[in-house]
Each structure stands twice: as C-alpha cells, then as structure tokens.
Amino acid sequence: MIVHRLARHFTAFRKSKRSFSILSRHLDAASTVFASAARLERVEDPELVLSDAQRRTIYALSTPPGKAGVAVIRVSGPDALRVWSCMVMANSDARSKDKARETDPEPWKMHRCKIIHPESGESLDDGLAVFFRGPKSFTTEDVVEMHIHSGRAIIASILSALSRLSFCRPAERGEFTRRAFEGGRLDLTQVEGLKDLIDAETESQRKAALKAAGGTTRARFESMRDEIIKCLALVEALIDFGEGEEIEKGVYELARKRALVLYHTIQHHLSDNRRGEILRSGIRLAIFGPPNAGKSSLLNFLAQREAAIVTPVPGTTRDILELSLDIGGLPVIVADTAGLRHTDDVVEKIGVERARQTIDKSDVSLCVLSLPELTLSGTIHIPPAISSLISEDTILLLNKADLVSASHINAISKLLGVKHTWQVSLTSGEGTQAFLEGFGRALQERYDMLQERVSEIEEPLITHSRHRAHLESASKFLQAFLDTPAEDVVFGAEELRYAAQAIGKISGLIDVEDVLDAVFRDFCIGK
Ligand SMILES: Nc1nc2c(ncn2[C@@H]2O[C@H](COP(=O)(O)OP(=O)(O)OP(=O)(O)O)[C@@H](O)[C@H]2O)c(=O)[nH]1
Ligand SMILES: [K+]
Ligand SMILES: [Mg+2]
C-alpha cells in the first residue's frame, strides 16, 4: 500500500516536466508518505501491543482520603487476579475451604469478603470486592475493586500491604483513565468529558460533559473524519485509474462537492463565539465602575457572603477578587475590580491597571454606577473613563436606589445605548431579586442556554481550545484541497490526508504523546 503510494508520487514526479516547484512538491509529498508510513507502523507494531499486555499492575485509592462510610481501592492490570488471591478472602471461600482459590471469583459481582495482609494473613478490614474481567472493565484490563471502610488507618494498611506485592506499583495521575484510552474504551474527547464531568459545578457543565463522556462528541468528529476519508477514497481511485479515464472529471468534482459541504460545516462550528469553551470553563464576568459605586457589595450579594471588603472609603478594592459562582445555572467566574479613576496612589494605580486588563479579558462586563452620584448635578453625568468602556452588550446596574426617588432605567440605558439595565439597592435589597433573575436570563440568552429552548438549540461541538486548533487546521487543509486543480490530484489527496489527520488528533487516533501528557496531567491519582 505504502509502496504503491510512493510509486504514484514518483510517476507524477517523472510526468510533470512543468517546473521545478512542481517537482519539489512531489518530492515533499513523497516524503510525507514516508513519514506517515513510519507513524502507521509505530501504531500497528505488534511488539508494542505485546509490551502493553506485559505492563505492571497498578493500584490506588480512588475515593477522597478521609473518614467516610466507604472507600474504594482500585487495582488494574494483568496481575489483578493475583492481588485478589493474595488479599481478598471471600466469605464463600472461607465456608468451603478445600475449594478455595481454585477457581477465579465470579466476575462483575460483589463478593462479601475480608481483606487480608498477603504475608501475615492478618485481617485488615471487612468489606466487599468485585472483579471485572478485561476487556469488560473501565481500563479494559482485569480490574479488582476493594470497597472498604474509609478510615485513614484502614486505607494506609491496605495500601501498604499492596506495596509488599512485587508485581504491583502505585498508579500515577490519571493512569486508570489513560489505560482506558490506550485500551480503546475512550477516545480523548471522552477522557476530557470524564474530567469535565467530575469537575462540573453547574447543570450546563454537567450536561455538556456527560454528552462528551458518553461519546457524542467523539461520534460527531468521527463522522467528519469519515467524510474526509470518503473524499480521499474518490481521489485515490482517480489516481489509481490514472489520467485520461472517462470517470475522471466527475469523480474529482464529486469529491470537491462533498469536501465543500464539510468545509462549510466546520466553518459553522468554528464561528460559535467559543460558546462551548466558555460554558465549560466558566463565563468570565468583570464587575467595573467608579469607586464606591457598590461593586464589592454586588460581588458579596452574588456570592451570598462577605467575600470582599466593603467600606465607605473610595478605593477600597485594589486587587482583583475572583469567585466561581452559579448564575442562572451557568458557571460564571465573577471578578471584582478596583474603582476606575485617576489616582497618584501607587498601589491604587496598579489596581486600576489590573481592572482594565480584567475588563479586556472578560466575556461579559457589568458596570455598577451609583445613582445619587450620576444625578448629582441634576443632569446625568457619567465620567468618560467609564462611558468609554460601555458597549451595548455591557450589563448596567444602577445602584443605591434607596437614595433617589425615581427610576432612571430608561433615561440612562437610552443615553448609553445598552441592552440590559437594572436599578437596585444592594443595601436595602430593593430590586435585587428581579436583577438576579433578569441577569441570569440575559446570560442564558447570550449563550443560547435558555431553559425552554435548550432542546432545540444545537449543542456546541467545540468545548476545548485543543479541538478548535485541530479543527482550524483541518479546515485549512480542506481549503487547500478545494484550491487544488484536478491535474494536481496527487497533491489534492495529500491535503485530504492531512485534513483527516488533523481531525484524528482530536480523538487521539494520531500521534498524541504530548497531548496525552497535557490531558492526563490534570487528573488526580486514582482516576
Ligand atoms: N445607601 C446605599 N449604600 C450602598 C449601597 N450599596 C453599597 N453601598 C455603600 O457604598 C459604599 C461603597 O461600597 P463598596 O461595595 O465598597 O463599593 P465599591 O464600588 O466596591 O468601592 P471601591 O472598591 O472602593 O471602588 C459602602 O459604604 C456600601 O455600604 C446601596 O445600595 N445603598
Ligand atoms: K469602597
Ligand atoms: Mg470594592
């Protein structure tokens, strides 16, 4: 197959007498065939698979350490059953002593048992144990789980007993999940989904992560890759049948047509305003405004606790204070910032600079203004340093309503051209409930997460910047294919191959060592 492809490039190389640049492009293409052949061989190398099977059995505590009803110690690898026979004394074994240990434990079934020390035979705890026979286990290897009482001494004694077994070693961060990935049970999008699921703090995060972990994201990327491979098959057929055949033009056009549809689909996903990534990692909200407007009071109201210092002294807040909160079911990282004003105070100056940077980086900004100050002179006055930061998407909160008599919502939102304005008193509580509900809805609307419409809105496909980067590169290769004229069909095929590879990287099908390290680094031990 590889020889065949190389031969094709060299034929094309001989045929194209057109220019040196064409010659060198064919040579380039031939060398990428070599490179990808080398990669393919690495992945399919049977010796690699063998050494995988021979690897050590790992163990770790898979529940948080501390006092609780139950803790789970997980063991995975080729010697998991040896661990069972050394340390798990099932009650049924004890009853029929002669038959004991001659047969494997019945898999996928909870066994009431004693956990014993492999050397002394001392009983360490009473509990339950279950054996998952690979590949029908989380890691696809043989897995043993011991469900024990969660107490520091119990856990320590069992982990120390495990360390006595020469064929076992403690697991590294995310190693169980990594083995599940390497065993083909999960692809990278599912691994990421699993981690996001564990980290999920809001409904929207949980739902999105569950979909990814369950393989929905994987299927969507796989179908894109399949489509590219179908285009590639058409183009390869064309190369194989050679030039001058009747089918030639129609086939290339068909491949281009299909590639164009896919190209548009990918563009559509890329232009999603980073919705999926923002919903996964949290919407960054910057609270800003002049000193003493009530920004820190707002943060405390949203957090329902005294997180920030509030005093009548203007310039109280200097450093950025960030909290992760749930607003309208969405994850929001709220940042309280220093009041914006000109100052000679060195510390406050730094605070103001940081405030500006935070507003710059934010996804949503919320401006707090103090009504009595706004209306002090009879006409509405907003300092230019503030109004220059307000756009129609800025959320406006008019605070200290207890100190004015009328509603200024209409006049001020018209003046500043903003879509969302509320008038509240953060000290008396007037208007705060309406603000909280309205603000939650405004966020849901902005991120297409309105509860009543969620079922009809398309789920964002891209939830990690990693996906975006590979999808962007796939889109570039598709574009390059679409720009390749029919007579350069060999190059066209090469572009499609790159496009398929770029998408393959999202699932981790293709050269991913560095990506793997990055993904699994964030896991904890026992996962
Ligand atoms: N009357 C009244 N006072 C308020 C209201 N909200 C906040 N305050 C008071 O206004 C003062 C300033 O509030 P902060 O929350 O510290 O204001 P800030 O915008 O964070 O101020 P800096 O961090 O200094 O920029 C405090 O004394 C608050 O108690 C309100 O709705 N009505
Ligand atoms: K203040
Ligand atoms: Mg403050």
From TrEMBL:
Question: Could you tell me what this protein is called?
Answer: tRNA modification GTPase MSS1, mitochondrial
**Cross-referenced Pfam families:** MMR_HSR1, MnmE_helical, TrmE_N
Keyword Acetylation carried by entry: no
What keywords are assigned to this protein? GTP-binding, Nucleotide-binding, tRNA processing
Record lineage: Eukaryota, Fungi, Dikarya, Basidiomycota, Agaricomycotina
- Subcellular location field: Mitochondrion
Per the record, the similarity remark reads: Belongs to the TRAFAC class TrmE-Era-EngA-EngB-Septin-like GTPase superfamily. TrmE GTPase family.
Where is each TrmE-type G domain found? Answer: 282-448
Q: Which PROSITE patterns does the record cross-reference, listed alphabetically?
A: G_TRME (PS51709)
Give the principal location in a single coarse category.
Answer: mitochondrion
